[in-house]
Amino acid sequence: RNRKGFVSQNCLVCCSFDLKFTYVLSSWEGSMADSTIYHDARMADLIIPPDCFYLADAGFPCCLELLVPYWGQHYHLAEWGQ
């Protein structure tokens, strides 16, 4: 069950720049933290090539392979769409 009490599933999905899925991990319950799922994927079979990065949200750890937003920074997405 997730933090709201509903049955849910947390999935880690990676895609390439041409929007093709390159990795899917869908074995965790909805209440599991993103950082735990990422760590499990890295220990299992998620391979991130050297000099490549994935964009991630603030729930993921700060590490060499992930670009995560600065903590507490409010981004205005409308500015990025211009």
From TrEMBL:
<dbReference type="InterPro" id="IPR027806">
    <property type="entry name" value="HARBI1_dom"/>
</dbReference>
<dbReference type="Pfam" id="PF13359">
    <property type="entry name" value="DDE_Tnp_4"/>
</dbReference>
<protein>
    <recommendedName>
        <fullName>DDE Tnp4 domain-containing protein</fullName>
    </recommendedName>
</protein>
<feature type="domain" description="DDE Tnp4">
    <location>
        <begin position="2"/>
        <end position="71"/>
    </location>
</feature>
<keyword id="KW-0479">Metal-binding</keyword>
<dbReference type="GO" id="GO:0046872">
    <property type="term" value="F:metal ion binding"/>
</dbReference>
